[in-house]
Specification:
mainly alpha; single chain
Length: 378
């Protein structure tokens, strides 16, 4: 029988309540009696090491070490992180989103350890520029595109949306903005970001179409230029219902994202017929979604709001009926990204971290390392 380990019982309770889980829900996930979970939180007994690993990595999404701290840690919360959103929206975030936020914070903590508290790039992109209500967005977009290293002509040569996302992602990460993905299990959210002056992070909903993921990348970069965290909501009607002072942040991010991936001066010289076929042709040309193109049509007065809503709802329903599924390891590689994977394995090959550390950084079992390595590097 495995022995229990001495941990801080107060931190066990804090880890549970901080993501809004009840004792009954934790007991169900752990397949234990609720009385046992209560005893752990009262310090009358303690989980085994294997049970603590499951609590930390799979339920509470927190580093294992935090449960051995002498005191409950003081940390940022979604309420303090996403200050461009009203409290009413933040308080309604589902538990799964809170867990993803915690997971993102773990990645941020991992990056700090892996880079040994040094900056991941000489110049962090999000500290080079600021976005506010007075910003000349076309000029900002032009400068950022130049830093990312891809001209509009480069963009026109990309053969697929997957290629486009990978190129933008690599460019972001070369400038210190790490991008992670996950299955959000909630189509109301396209992604979110967490600001930090050294390790800013963007988290993307991998269940969204590739084209939406590209837009979310730049929407969240807009939030980071405000030097604040933010969330990209899938449905614009959520944004239209919030107060004006919050709405302006979201619209600023949308305008920036739209301008950088579909520059207005380039859009103006395209064939702008109002037809689904033309929307698709332009979406393919710019490597973006039809929704981004349609929004350009709306902003330029070429269609009305009713037409925009009808078409976007039609396309959303089409996407919901897509076939799902995929290869486990390739999916995990897509979630983490090549830059992060190379960074972690680089430390491992240099004997700076152990196999146990490596499995923790990659969130995989130690027994699966060699298989993961095979699929990551061939």
């Amino acid at each position: 029988m495995s022995e229990s380990i001495p941990i801080n019982a107060d931190i066990l309770k804090w880890a549970r309540t901080s993501i809004g889980l009840s004792i009954e829900e934790v007991a169900q996930k752990m397949r234990r009696k609720k009385e046992e979970i209560k005893d752990w939180e009262l310090g009358q007994s303690a989980p085994t090491y294997a049970q603590l690993e499951k609590l930390a990595y799979h339920i509470y999404k927190r580093p294992l070490a935090v449960f051995f701290f002498p005191d409950v840690p003081i940390e940022e919360t979604p309420k303090t992180e996403f200050r461009t959103l009203p409290n009413t929206l933040i308080e309604q975030l589902p538990v799964e989103m809170i867990k993803l936020y915690r997971k993102a914070k773990i990645f941020q903590f991992n990056l700090e350890e892996l880079f040994e508290n040094a900056k991941p790039a000489e110049v962090i992109l999000v500290d080079k520029y600021r976005l506010d209500e007075h910003t000349n967005i076309p000029l900002l977009a032009e400068k950022v595109r130049k830093d990312l290293g891809y001209s509009i002509n480069d963009q026109f040569t990309w053969q697929s949306l997957d290629e486009a996302f990978k190129k933008w992602r690599k460019a972001f990460e070369s400038l210190g903005v790490f991008v992670f993905k996950d299955a959000f299990h909630n189509d109301d959210f396209s992604g979110f970001c967490i600001y930090d002056n050294k390790y800013p992070i963007i988290f993307i909903n991998n269940s969204m179409p590739d084209s939406r993921q590209i837009f979310t990348l730049f929407h969240e970069l807009g939030h980071l230029f405000y030097h604040l965290g933010g969330i990209d909501f899938r449905d614009n009607r959520v944004l239209e219902a919030i107060e004006r002072k919050y709405f302006k942040f979201e619209m600023g991010c949308n305008k920036f994202a739209s301008e950088i991936i579909v520059p207005q001066k380039v859009f103006d010289v395209q064939n702008l017929q109002v037809s689904e076929r033309q929307f698709q042709l332009l979406a393919n040309k710019f490597s973006v979604s039809r929704e981004v193109i349609l929004r350009k049509y709306l902003d330029n007065g070429l269609i009305d709001n009713e037409y925009y809503r009808k078409m976007t709802e039609k396309w959303a329903n089409q996407y919901k009926n897509r076939k799902k599924g995929g290869h486990y390891y390739y999916t995990q590689i897509a979630y983490l990204g090549n830059t992060y994977i190379n960074l972690v394995f680089g430390k491992y090959y240099q004997n700076k971290i152990s196999a146990e550390n490596l499995s923790s950084y990659l969130n995989i079992k130690e027994t699966n390392i060699s298989t993961f390595e095979h699929y990551a590097f061939g």
